[in-house]
Design a protein that fits this description.
Chains A, B, C, D, E: InterPro entries: EutN_CcmL, EutN_CcmL_sf. The structure is a homopentamer. By secondary structure, chain A is mainly beta. Chain A is built from no helices and five strands. Chain A starts with a strand and ends in a 13-residue tail after the last strand. Chains A and D meet through strand 4 and strand 5 of A and strand 1, strand 2 and strand 3 of D.
Chain lengths: 100, 100, 100, 100, 100
Amino acid sequence: MQMGKVIGNVWATRKEEGLEGLKLLIVQPVNSAGKPIRTQLVAADRIGAGIGDDVLVTSGGSSRYIMKEKSLPIDAVIVGIIDSTEVERGGLNESSDWND
Amino acid sequence: MQMGKVIGNVWATRKEEGLEGLKLLIVQPVNSAGKPIRTQLVAADRIGAGIGDDVLVTSGGSSRYIMKEKSLPIDAVIVGIIDSTEVERGGLNESSDWND
Amino acid sequence: MQMGKVIGNVWATRKEEGLEGLKLLIVQPVNSAGKPIRTQLVAADRIGAGIGDDVLVTSGGSSRYIMKEKSLPIDAVIVGIIDSTEVERGGLNESSDWND
Amino acid sequence: MQMGKVIGNVWATRKEEGLEGLKLLIVQPVNSAGKPIRTQLVAADRIGAGIGDDVLVTSGGSSRYIMKEKSLPIDAVIVGIIDSTEVERGGLNESSDWND
Amino acid sequence: MQMGKVIGNVWATRKEEGLEGLKLLIVQPVNSAGKPIRTQLVAADRIGAGIGDDVLVTSGGSSRYIMKEKSLPIDAVIVGIIDSTEVERGGLNESSDWND
């Protein structure tokens, strides 16, 4: 999973059938320090996340498994709203790569 | 999912059987500001997207799930045509990474 | 899918059973301008592609779906030989990122 | 799989049903020299890994296969705690890419 | 698939059940010129690869398909040991990107 912050909404009227009724949120992935990493994605949401929330996102085929029928053509879903994180500082320095 | 803009078409006469009759569009992923991110991909389209449209693209194995039979050898499909987006500015600055 | 150019062949005598008899080609992904993007990959080919051909490559689990039995341990397959592309210039500038 | 170091914990009260009771750890991928590579991810853990452990992480749909029922909406799981590694130095220099 | 060079071994005593008895090798992906690309990964091996071998690696969910039962929680497997490659030089210049 990846951590991210919800930054927006997307609306699409014309869409594949499987997406009907799904809320779609724009998420900016962040690291444990809250720094943006990688690039934005759009995730389905069924647990009531909103703009500003820190969330956990599951990507790829596993995101279909939020539904029993597993037939949604989606590749990202918000699976949790983060309450808190605890990160060990020191020891391993976090990557200082530009894409961290 | 990722947001993108349709920038072109691809035609292939010789192809795997599963691709017969599928429209294939070249999509440039973009972020919520409309800025190109990552690299171009080719997505199947069944909902009538065309050049210039802002679209939502599902990637990976989930893209097969637009069809009941789920046997298409495709890894990207346009699942929605974006009407509008709403993005919270401020608070979290968007990544200024070159690849955002 | 991604566009690419076939640049070579790979031969492996010792291999997993599922790969027996599959032609394996080295592909350099390219964008719609023919510029190399990302890094080389090796794709299975059943449609007769050869060095110099512009091709469409499906990656990930969907690449197994070229076979009914779907049991091949492959993650990339050539699904089409590109005849032509049509790309809208202007409007959206293509990413000038180094990895585009 | 990728090698990584566990650097933290994540807690989420509101979440998709499939995640109930799963421990979630923040992992920083590292290469064989212990140098951070790529960006942080959050992995489920069932084998008792903790902060500071060097671990092996399986990503994508395969991470569901730690459970018989295979219905977890997760895309990363810790599958092993690394005891030791042996790396051949010389011959092939490791990539000096910034993202290695 | 991707080409790579086996550079090391990983041992883990505490691990998910599905990994019991699987040999795990550290692989540095390389391009057709033998130049390191991307970042190291750990792949399961059943065909007897060893340090210094040039190999083909299948990633993602397809890597489970080396086993009939398909229940391994792995996301990378060595599917072939490369005997030789033939690469067309000229025409298309290889990407000179740092990550090629």
